[in-house]
Write a structure and sequence with these properties.
The protein has helices at 18-31, 44-62, 65-85, 118-125, and strands at 2-7, 34-39, 89-101, 104-116. The chain is α+β, with helices and mostly antiparallel strands.
Length: 126
C-alpha cells in the first residue's frame, strides 16, 4: 500500500467553527473508502475525545442516504465542539493509496485526520 498526493489540506480547519468543520469532514468522509486517524494528545480527556471523533468519522464514512449523513454530521459537530473547548485542533486531508489485491492494484481514497493540542498542531503545519 502506498500513499499518493493529497488534497484539502488540514489548515482549512483552523479558522472554522465546529459546524463548518463537521460539514466539511462529512463531505470528505463520503469521498473516502478508508480512514486514518491519529491522536497526538496523551491525557485522558484527549483520548476520550479522540475515541469519540474516530467513531463519528467512521459513522460519516459509512453513512448512506441523507438522514444518516445528517446524523453523522451532527455527531461530528458535537465532538468537534468538545475538542475545541478542550483546546484540541484538527487537521485532515484526502489522499489516495494503492492497494494490492487478488484482482490487481486498486486506488482507494483515504481520509487522514490528526487531533492534537495547539502546540503540536502548529508544529505539524510548519
Amino acid at each position: 500500500m502506498s500513499h499518493k498526493g493529497g488534497c484539502c489540506g488540514g489548515n482549512v480547519f483552523t479558522g472554522l467553527e465546529p459546524a463548518r468543520q463537521a460539514e466539511y469532514l462529512a463531505m470528505l468522509a463520503q469521498e473516502a473508502r478508508l480512514l486514518e486517524f491519529s491522536l497526538e494528545g496523551e491525557d485522558s480527556e484527549s483520548r476520550r475525545i479522540g475515541d469519540r471523533l474516530q467513531r463519528a468519522l467512521e459513522g460519516a464514512l459509512d453513512a448512506e442516504g441523507p438522514d444518516e449523513t445528517e446524523g453523522a454530521r451532527d455527531e461530528l459537530e458535537e465532538v468537534l465542539t468538545g475538542a475545541r473547548d478542550a483546546g484540541l485542533r484538527l487537521s485532515a486531508h484526502l489522499s489516495e493509496v494503492d492497494v494490492d489485491g487478488i484482482l490487481g492494484t486498486m486506488k482507494m481514497r483515504v481520509l487522514s485526520t490528526v487531533l492534537a493540542p495547539p502546540a503540536q498542531s502548529q508544529a505539524m503545519r510548519d
